[in-house]
Specification:
The complex is a heterotrimer of chains A (417), B (292) and C (200).
Chain A (H helix, E strand, L loop, with lengths): L1 H4 L6 E4 L9 H9 L3 E4 L6 E5 L2 E8 L4 E8 L18 H4 L5 H16 L50 H24 L14 E2 L9 H5 L5 E3 L5 E3 L9 H5 L5 E2 L5 H9 L13 E6 L3 H10 L8 E6 L7 H9 L4 E6 L13 H18 L7 E5 L8 H15 L8
Parallel strand pairs in A: 1-2, 10-11, 10-12, 12-13
Antiparallel strand pairs in A: 3-4, 4-5, 6-9, 7-8
Chain B lengths: L1 E4 L2 H5 L3 H14 L2 E4 L11 H4 L2 H17 L5 E2 L3 H16 L1 H12 L11 E2 L1 H9 L1 H6 L9 E5 L19 H8 L3 E2 L18 H17 L4 E4 L2 H8 L2 H8 L7 E3 H8 L18 H8 L1
Parallel strand pairs in B: 1-2, 1-3, 3-4, 5-6, 5-7, 7-8
Chain C lengths: L2 E2 L3 H10 L14 H5 L9 H10 L3 H5 L12 H5 L6 H14 L6 H17 L6 H8 L3 H20 L20 H14 L6
Helix pairs in contact in C: 7-8, 8-9
Classes of the chains: A alpha/beta (417), B alpha/beta (292), C mainly alpha (200).
Chain lengths: 417, 292, 200
Amino acid sequence: MVKEANPEAAVYVIYKDIRTPGQSEEVYREAQRKGVVFIRRDEDYPKISESGGKLAIETKDMTLNDTVEIDELDMVVLATGLKPNNPKVVDAPLVALGMDQEAAKKLAAESKAQCDSWSVLNLQYRQGPNLPTLKYAYPDSHFICFPYETRRTGIYTAGAVRRPMRVSQAVEDATGAALKAIQAAHAAAEGVAVHPRSGDMSFPEFAMQRCTQCKRCTEECPFGAINEDEKANPLPNPTRCRRCGVCMGACPERIISFKNYSVDMIGSMIKSIDVPEEDEEKPRVIVLACENDALPAIDMAARKGHKWSPYIRFIPVRCLGSVNLVWIADALSSGIDGVMLFGCRHGEDYQCHFIKGSELANVRMSKISETLDRLVLESDRVRVEEISFNEVDRIPEIISEFMETIEEVGPNPYKGF
Amino acid sequence: MTYFLYPGCSLEAGGSHYLVSVEAVAHALGLTLKEIDDWNCCGASIHYVGGTELQTKTLNARNLALAQKQGGYDIIAPCSSCYIQMIKTAHEFEEEPKLAEELNQILAEGGLNYTGGVKVRHILDVLYHDLGVERLAAAVKKPLTGLKVASYYGCQTTRPYGEYDSVENPHTMDEILEALGAEVVPFEHKAKCCGSGIFFTEMETCAPLAGGILGEAEEKGADMIVTACPMCQMNLEIYQPRLNKILGTEYDMPVVFVTQLMALAFGGDFKKDAALDRNIVSAAEVLKNAAA
Amino acid sequence: MATKAYDKSFREEVYQNVDSGEDVKLCMQCGVCGITCPLRGEMTHGPRQLWSLIRAGKRDEVMNSPDIMLCTSCYSCKVRCPRGVKVIDVMHGLAHYALEQGIVPRKETSKFGKAFWDSIYKTGRVDETEVPMRYTLMAGPIHGIFNMLEMMDIGRALLAHKRMKFKIGPGLPPSKKIKGMKGLKKMLDKAKAMSPGKEG
């Protein structure tokens, strides 16, 4: 632009990297044709100084391999990068994994306070007024499958809010987000869930008379769907709910259930499994598999003709986050020798379709290992495995390895009780 | 089929054996070659020392204008440097109207004019594309069986336009030589520079380049290097004793023009048609051994 | 300690006065030319760095660089340059421009090139006997004779193999001129007047 207005002007671009997405290589070429000079620097930022009303820049020049000074400049334009202004909001229960409680709580409170003070959205969520963020402080979503989604149902992010992008891409992005929003509006009108359990008509129901106000469900719900009153009683918001069942898995009193999915339902399934007698020397292992990646993977493995131990029984669950610890207890007290939980990957590059379910399952299982040891039950009997849909061929290996471990630790001492 | 022949200054002197063999080959294949009347030098590779770009283009535009005036046939330039200079001017004339206008203003000073359209061809181009390898094979009376050759194109035979063959990995001459019955050894240096126009004045600097070419040819068991460029032929051949002194080697490798081999294979005379007596590092021995 | 650089006067000078000098604007410093050049081991800078120096206003380094006359015109760089920079033409242009300023990048090539061009300018052809003779004598009469004697073996071989015309000395006999020499001279003069550069 400067060159077009004044072809005689000396224009320089000092850069560390040049990226020309889309057709912008032509912009680069055109700039060079007009005589713009590009200078490559290294990691160090150039120094800008002023003298007699003119500016000067001192920078390392990689192509000349020298530090050069360009003076007599009328204007210096800084190219700023895009950065979301959400500082990282930390989930308290998960920071507790490895961090001591007090430090975790303090950090969480600080981070929350930081962005609460200037929240743009001002959401009335118990978990905070902003969208939860993950890597690089961008709003958390299942990036691969559901890019526009956030952990707040009905709110869809588009454009540079969710990742760096150019205006032309943002326009396209907004179209996608708008379409998702229309879907959400339809779903709300019909009273059904949005993805991943699109069309689900069930709701979590709370038997409040047994609630002990422990706040696990309100804190752990990945979507903040449960508010709480001043007495810490949970106040569910059905339109925010994704029907994952994480609350059901969290509740130690087991007061939460869905009409078609409850603690009792799976518990009964477990208790009705036939467990061979100890002298038959046939172990019994159950696999709780999440419906998103793990169960389809097992299905695919079977179709491919993979073979594994006949002593396994598979029980599908909505999400590993919905696994209530009582099921583990039920399984082990029935004489079942081992319990495996197959679910989606958790962590920074997570795959869990309910965002936090798999991670919570992992945390909960690590907590019960102490209990198991006290009951003279080896903690090896319970294992959480991450299975993704492209790891179908690993399944037989994982199972056989677990069966070996079970053989090592021997049969469940509570068989036949 | 009629073509213009543009010998260039080289073929009249240092590359005279190229000229003799080109004419013999044309005769054997039934091509009519007319020399452009009153052609001038093309500028070759070191034109830039004394002349500007426009002056060099002038030299070539004059030849193109003469060719147009005298019949407009395709011009065969056996010398790679002449080929490149003329084809560059011809192409840029077609692609840049402003240049075409300037050149015609200049040509007017000498009473000439050029409207474009004359095609400039390398001898390999004509042999491979206009005649075809089959026709060449059919004309062979004394196949060069048992002769191992390194097919050396050098730089300016195919670059920069790659009109008739690859700029990085050419094959036309390889196939022509195979049609003559010779065995072409794998030769990575086939299109690598020998030093070209500055070889003579920068011999110490360019020696490793020529050394690499001669060295690989020897390593791969070639009896001779076959080339289509008089500059390369000169650099690699007549300075071999000098190169040996600089590099500490003992090369004794004949460097022969592709048309010389063709003339021989078509049944021509060693001296009169193939002008092989004009090669300083004689190829007589290897040719005798191969034919036996 | 930073050195002052990027004054635009030199690069403007190159863009306006050097044949194909404007191509330098488009270089994106990828380095393919430098790594492809067969004489890269001998060069001080190489084409890529030369363009960078031009843009940075480093007149002395560029004009005095021997590299601009070490180009063999092999065209390997030009066919590979992703930006289509006419590398050969710029190198040649810089060499010509340097000579016009009285700077001699490589002595021997400059002398030979001058003898070469003189032959074209006077006769329309390059006489392959005359030009080497004149070139060797350019070193002065004493050195010239020594040089000639050194090249004797090659000259003799060429003569014996009918690849050189016999001459007693330069101009003896004089080289033949083309018929249209007068016209060619006028053309060359006009072309020179229309070329970029100090005398253009």
